[in-house]
TrEMBL record:
Family of this protein: Belongs to the IlvD/Edd family.
Catalytic activities: 6-phospho-D-gluconate = 2-dehydro-3-deoxy-6-phospho-D-gluconate + H2O
A Pfam family assignment: ILV_EDD_C
SUPFAM superfamilies to which the protein is assigned, alphabetical: IlvD/EDD N-terminal domain-like (SSF143975), LeuD/IlvD-like (SSF52016)
Entry-linked PANTHER family: D-XYLONATE DEHYDRATASE, PHOSPHOGLUCONATE DEHYDRATASE
InterPro entries noted in UniProt: 6-phosphgluc_deHydtase (IPR004786), Dihydro-acid_dehy_C (IPR042096), DiOHA_6PGluconate_deHydtase_CS (IPR020558), ILV_EDD_C (IPR056740), ILV_EDD_N (IPR000581), IlvD/EDD_N (IPR037237)
Cofactor binding note: Binds 1 [4Fe-4S] cluster.
Its EC number(s): 4.2.1.12
Name of the featured protein: Phosphogluconate dehydratase
Residue stretches making up the Dihydroxy-acid/6-phosphogluconate dehydratase C-terminal domain: 407-598
Biological function: Catalyzes the dehydration of 6-phospho-D-gluconate to 2-dehydro-3-deoxy-6-phospho-D-gluconate.
GO MF terms held by the record: phosphogluconate dehydratase activity
Pathway(s) annotated for this protein in UniProt: Carbohydrate metabolism; Entner-Doudoroff pathway
Lineage: Bacteria, Pseudomonadati, Pseudomonadota, Alphaproteobacteria, Hyphomicrobiales
Amino acid sequence: MALNPTLARVTDRIVARSVALRRPYLERMARARAAGTVRAHLSCGNQAHAYAAMPVDDKAALVKGGAGNLGIITAYNDMLSAHQPYESYPDLIRAAARTAGGTAQVAGGVPAMCDGVTQGQAGMELSLFSRDAIAMAAGIALSHNTFDSTVYLGVCDKIVPGLVIAAAAFGHMPAVFVPAGPMASGIANDEKSKVRQLFATGQCGRDKLMEAEMAAYHGPGTCTFYGTANTNQMLMEFMGLHLPGSSFVNPNTPLRDALTVEAARRALAISALGNDYTPVCDVLDERAFVNGIVGLNATGGSTNLLIHMIAMARAAGIVLDWQDFADLSEVTPLMARVYPNGLADVNHFHAAGGLGFMIGELLEAGLLHPDTRTVAGEGLARYTREPKLIDGALVWSEGTSASLNPKVLRPAGEPFQPTGGLKRLQGNLGTGVMKVSAVAPERHVVEAPARVFADQEAVKQAFRAGEFTGDTVVVVRFQGPKANGMPELHSLTPLLAVLQDKGLKVALVTDGRMSGASGKVPAAIHVSPEALDGGPLARLRDGDLVRVDAIAGTIDVLTAGALERENAEPDLDGNEFGVGRELFGLFRRQVSAAEHGASPLFG
């Protein structure tokens, strides 16, 4: 099938836009590759330090110089359900490496915080910046220059983007990303949401809320809704950094362990010591990022990736912008309904045919680049296959050619809606984005007086006081990366949903973020420039008429003279200290705008 012309045009535009960064990046990677296996250039003392704690046989293999050494970067901790399964992975990987004639070492660990724990709390102000701290920590781990290839163990919101940024920095080496898989299905996500709304309106107690939450988040693995963590897993498969079909295999199963072993074997096989050298700089090209954007739209994925993908691409010398996402959204069918864009969870999605079915359909429709390099080999068609254990051996067989549950997953030619789940908004209030896949069509346009707040707690107080009695555009400003690290405002979702269910027209406008789990309330988020950086949101006042239009793709204040006012001055003293915020002042001062990736590394 010929490439869709919009897909081809957007890709060409990205290539042209990126030349000034991509060419020198690839030249740096070529020089690093030409230097050879860096371990060979270390002094005897350097090498002795690097091998001191290894088993005797592993030491001997490395001293002889022929064995490939695999570096493990792990985000393991046992507080995050998604990362707890990684506790056993290093042993599996080391054993697999030895069987393949190589060695493996944990090069280093990276921090991994849980947005589910910090939602609505001060710690959420570190969440976005943790991505860049993760990239830096992984860079420190790999700076020892003793590795021929790498495997990355990470799943959740900022962890995978941070690891991809690090992998791009060491792009002359191969990088295989190894997932942990989703937890088994618990309480239905819509039931959990109902209990949250009941609690918000005082119709049930905290005991019922706690019971529902613990029934939803109940075991090892990622949360089962389609938020940022599972969007990350989709992205790694569409971009060719996972093994095919590995994203949504449950933890602690024989198939999961077999895939981990194979990931280690494959990472060594594609090092420069073998005949199938596949540096990650060649995997992470413009086509791979376009494929990732298509996957994001086709699945109705998390809006957080509109920031993360820009930063990830920049690390590989590629320049994306939100218009690329918007243009691809216009030609990408929405093929999945997974909560919050439906009632199913990712286990149901995987059982219905999952990513393999979706990739096959999009390839057939000309909506993916088929000729990308991947860690599994040449061509994205490999990712239409699914892994199976047959008589104890891991094999890949052809995936399903039809959806096994059309309520969850549909063919590209019969989608839930003809366009993707993401919309770029632009107007006199700046540039923002909206996830529209879960928003009812009749709510795509909201025009109403504004209520302006400086933080989410003030919104909650107004809600508890019964102040929202008519149609309202809730504006929460001074929530951008420079102001306070751009926290997610997901704890507002139940409150705004209650107002919406009462029949009010409600929208949120903010220079902050919303969770990947947010959905049915129209939310214009990531508004740039942010209020602290002179953005128009700083000039809004209560009562200003604001129009949020996801159909036309606009976000405007309609009140005459509103933008001629002086900017409001925020009181940010409370955001400077506590729960580690004082350690990230440099990041807040250095960070780029949300539309440029909100990164202090690529200002």
